Amino acid sequence: MIRVEIAYALPLTQDLCVLELAEGATVAQAIALSPHAQLDLAGHAVAIHGRLVPLHTLLRDQDRIEILRPLRVDPKEARRRRQSRGKRVRRTGG
User: Does the pLDDT at position 72 exceed 80?
Assistant: First the structure.
């Protein structure tokens, strides 16, 4: 048996659940057995520990599945809108 966590971030809260599954289970199977089974995953990306994965990915013990909500606005478009309104865009990194 393996133990996985499924996270789904809502605008104001994060919904978490922990499942125990047989070895060889996939991301899709885990989600189907979770409280998030009713989600239409067509508009959602799925990640394990922050890395995008397809639904047929095999799970390992202690994986954290993250169901990512669709972006409301493309980040590049949001930046263009801020610039057109005269707001300064901060850059980080280096």
Answer: no
Please work out, in degrees rounded to the nearest 5, the angle formed at the alpha carbon of residue 55 by the alpha carbons of 75 and 38.
Answer: 85
CA angle 56, 58, 62 (to 5 degrees): 130
The CA–CA distances, whole Å, from 37 to 33, 72, 76 equal 6, 22, 32
Q: What are phi and psi of 84, to 5 degrees?
A: -70, -25
**Are 33 and 19 within 8 A, CB to CB?**
yes
Tokens of 86: 């005269």
Asked whether residue 90 carries a pLDDT value surpassing 80, the answer given is: no
With CA atoms as reference, report the closest residue to 37 among 24, 22, 63, 55.
55
Spell out the domains of the chain, with CATH numbers in brackets. Answer: 2-84 (3.10.20.30)
Percent of the chain exceeding pLDDT 90 equals 53
Calculate mean pLDDT across residues 39-66: 92
